[in-house]
Amino acid sequence: MRFFTQRRHFRDLSEQEVLALAISSEEDDARIYRSYAEMLRADFPDTAKIFDGMAAEEDQHRQRLIELHRKRFGDVIPLIRREHVAGYYARRPIWLVENLGIERIREEAEAMERDAEHFYLAAAKRTSDADTRQLLGDLAAAEAGHQTKAGELEAEHLTLDSREAEERASHRQFVLTWVQPGLAGLMDGSVSTLAPIFATAFATHDTWTTFLVGLAASVGAGISMGFTEAASDDGELSGRGSPVKRGIAAGVMTTLGGLGHALPYLIPEFWTATIIAFAVVFIELWAIAWIQNKYMETPFLRATFQVVLGGALVFAAGALIGSG
After folding, report:
1. What are the entry keywords (predicted)?
2. Which of 8, 11, 74, 241 has the most CB atoms in a 10 Å sphere around its CB?
3. CA dist 310 to 143, 208, 285, 324, Å?
C-alpha cells in the first residue's frame, strides 16, 4: 500500500512543482532526441540532423521554464520527475526503441510531442499566474507545432534523394538482419526435416512416433541454426546487424519450418495426417519461393524451381528410406 502513496497525483502538485516537472520532462525529451540522433547518425545522417534540431527546441523550452521558475520561485528547483507522478505519461526506454525501424522511431517522436502538448494544456488550466499560464499555453502550442517544425527540419535536411537513400538503407538492414537468416532457417527447417519425418512415417505408420521425431528434429535444428547464425558473424564488419536478432530469426523460423509438417501427425489416422502434411509442405515451399521473390529479388519461377526441386529430392529420399 505504501508503494502507491509514494506517487503523487498531478492535481495535488503546486504550481512550483508543475514547473519543476515540466523542466525535468523537457530535459529528458532533449536527451531522448539526442539519443535517437546518435543511434541513427551512422546509417541515417539526415534524419539524425532532424532529431538534433528537435533536441535544440526542447533545450529552448527548458530554458524558458527555468527563467520563469527563477522569476517566481527562485533558483532552487524541486526534484520531481515523471515517475513521481501517478498517471503521468511515460517514455519508452531507449533500448526498446533502438530495436525498431526508422519509421517507428519517427512515430515514437510524434507521440512524445502529443503527450507533451496534453501536459501543458492541463498544466495551464491549473495556474492563476498570467505569465505562467501564457508560457504553458505557448509551450502547448509549440509542442503541437513540432510536427510543423519537424517538417521544416525534414525539408532542410532530408531531401527526396536522402529519404530514398535512407529508405533503401533501412530496407537493406531489415533484409540482412531478419529476412536472410529467417529465410535460411525456414528453408533448413522445412526441407531438412522432410527426410526424417517422412522416413519415420512410412517406416512405422505410427503418427505419434512420427510427431515426436518431427518435434525433436525441428527443435534441435532450430537451436542449432540459431546458435550457428549468432556465432558465425558479430555483424560489425558485415553490417548484418545484431547477432542476437539474426539468431532468433534463424532459430524460430527453422523450428516453425519443421513443425509445420510435423504437427499434422498429431492426427491418429495415418493417411489423413500424411495428406495434410503434404499440403503443409506445399504451402511452406510456396512461402519460401514468395519470400525469395519479394525480398531477395529472385525471379519467382527460378525460386519455385529451386525450392520445389530441393524439397522433392529430400522428400523422395525420406520416403524411399522409410519404405525400404
Report:
1. Membrane, Transmembrane, Transmembrane helix
2. 241
3. 57, 27, 10, 21
